[in-house]
Structure to design on (522 residues):
């Protein structure tokens, strides 16, 4: 270089980026151009032992790249978003780094903009210093490609957070799954969260552990809710408030997957033979005493698999299958979620299992009572495997039964085609309850219970109404329709209103009223 060039260089005015100036002056902060895209992720105060081990694996994954040119990338999958962020934040802190998070949806699809973002973040990561957490949810093709391109050039530590492993043709680092907390870790979480709540015993905490599978931050949130409500609701007690708080937290994410029913019906609302009712009560006992039998008595350690409580309710439409599930849910203090299997089953290979996994993963948080309606949409006699469709149909059924057996709560299947079910599948279901078509005396009892005592009636005879050969569901429909007809006339509810309502119900069922069914009505 000539002397004049050196002089020109040393005497030229230098322009210094404001971010660099602040760094040199000892005032580090995130570049303003990244505000709104990135947010600081706090470090959790403590982690359960298995989460702590996962954080150590993330730290190790940043330092053991498979190839010199491989990105400093670790994938954390499974669990919920907050748990994945807690593990990543703890890993970053151990490496002397802050952690910033961004959504993969905010990564530009334009190559030039994406390159500017990557270079800007790489500078920030070195100056702060910091690691990046990219939250990858459901992405379309363009966004997925943009995310892959952004991550491929990662020269600073990055964690990709997602509920499922990301398919990618590009090289990636270690993949770490958020571990499932065992019962002892869960008990430690609940005990620590409620340590200053004196009105709660260890057996009550163990019941909470048996019922709920909640991540650490949700357990702490439930405990905070109990402390907030306890002074004004002493009559409930800390254990009842903790149960209610756990239910409220567990509902998050379930409502979009099924129809939630607030259970109100009790045992007196069921009109069933004693043999069916006794089986239902036995199922309740299996769910209620899981903590005692599985943990205190040690059956979980010896049996290990197949500890879920599974049941099949078989019977025609309107025979009381859903009502029985509602009664059991109320008895157990649980939510009842009705999952329509006809909506879950997909013609696309692998989609049915994915939909079922979403249902079970969400329900695992609170052990809700899951009622899979229309099981005939999936179950059936296993045909000889002639092509790939038969093979995948059998895999879908096997996957459902496997998840039901592993499910911590109670899972019930309903069907009106019991004879069509494969005996191999029947062996894997713990309880089978048949709901027969109600006899005439049982129909009369249903009529008595379905008519409210305050309803204005005239000459209504349940014994005559019981001559209608319909199940409980249709009885409720006829009673309600007849009441509306009477109210429209401004009259009391009479047999003629029931007759008109019965004709409408029979039209829906594509049946005709017989003279014997309405004998003595008028």
């Amino acid at each position: 270089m000539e002397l004049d060039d050196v002089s020109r260089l040393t005497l030229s005015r230098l322009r210094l980026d404001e971010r660099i100036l602040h760094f040199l002056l000892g005032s580090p902060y995130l570049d303003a151009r990244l505000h709104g895209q990135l947010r600081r992720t706090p470090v959790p105060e403590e982690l359960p032992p298995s989460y702590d081990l996962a954080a150590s694996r993330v730290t190790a994954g940043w330092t053991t790249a498979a190839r010199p040119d491989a990105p400093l990338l670790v994938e954390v999958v499974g669990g919920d978003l907050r748990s994945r962020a807690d593990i990543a934040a703890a890993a970053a802190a151990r490496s002397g780094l802050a952690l910033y998070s961004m959504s993969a949806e905010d990564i530009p699809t334009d190559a030039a903009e994406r390159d500017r973002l990557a270079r800007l973040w790489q500078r920030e990561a070195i100056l702060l210093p910091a690691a990046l957490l990219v939250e990858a949810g459901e992405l379309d093709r363009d966004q997925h490609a943009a995310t892959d391109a952004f991550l491929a050039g990662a020269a600073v530590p990055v964690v990709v957070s997602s509920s499922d492993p990301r398919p990618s043709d590009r090289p990636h680092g270690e993949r770490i799954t958020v571990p499932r907390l065992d019962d002892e870790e869960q008990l430690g979480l609940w005990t620590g969260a409620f340590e200053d709540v004196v009105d709660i015993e260890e057996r009550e905490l163990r019941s909470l552990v048996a019922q709920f599978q909640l991540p650490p931050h949700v357990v702490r949130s439930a405990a905070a809710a109990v402390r907030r409500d306890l002074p004004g609701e002493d009559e409930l007690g800390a254990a009842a408030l903790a149960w209610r708080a756990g239910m409220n937290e567990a509902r998050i994410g379930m409502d979009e997957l099924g129809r939630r029913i607030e259970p109100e019906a009790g045992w007196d609302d069921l009109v069933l033979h004693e043999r069916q009712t006794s089986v239902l009560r036995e199922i309740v006992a299996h769910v209620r005493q899981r903590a005692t039998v599985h943990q205190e008595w040690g059956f979980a350690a010896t049996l290990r698999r197949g500890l879920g409580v599974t049941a099949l309710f078989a019977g025609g439409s309107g025979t009381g299958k859903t009502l029985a599930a509602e009664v059991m849910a109320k008895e157990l203090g649980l939510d009842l979620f009705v999952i329509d299997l006809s909506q879950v089953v997909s013609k696309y290979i692998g989609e049915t299992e994915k939909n079922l996994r979403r249902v079970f993963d969400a329900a695992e948080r609170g052990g809700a009572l899951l009622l899979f309606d229309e099981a005939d949409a999936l179950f059936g006699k296993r045909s000889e495997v002639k092509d790939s469709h038969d093979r995948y149909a059998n895999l879908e059924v096997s996957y459902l039964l496997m998840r039901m057996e592993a499910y911590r709560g109670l899972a019930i299947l309903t069907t009106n085609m019991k004879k069509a079910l494969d005996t191999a599948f029947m062996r894997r279901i713990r309880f089978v309850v048949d709901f027969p078509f109600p006899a005439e005396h049982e129909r009369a009892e249903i009529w008595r219970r379905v008519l409210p005592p305050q309803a204005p009636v005239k000459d209504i005879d349940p014994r005559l109404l019981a001559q209608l050969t319909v199940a409980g569901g249709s009885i409720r429909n006829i009673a309600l329709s007849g009441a509306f007809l009477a109210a429209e006339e401004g009259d009391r509810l009479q047999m003629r209103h029931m007759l008109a309502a019965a004709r409408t119900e029979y039209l829906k069922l594509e049946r005709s009223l017989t003279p014997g069914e309405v004998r003595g009505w008028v």
About this structure: Residues 381-390 have pLDDT under 50 and may be disordered. Residues 427 and 517 are 40 Å apart (CA to CA).
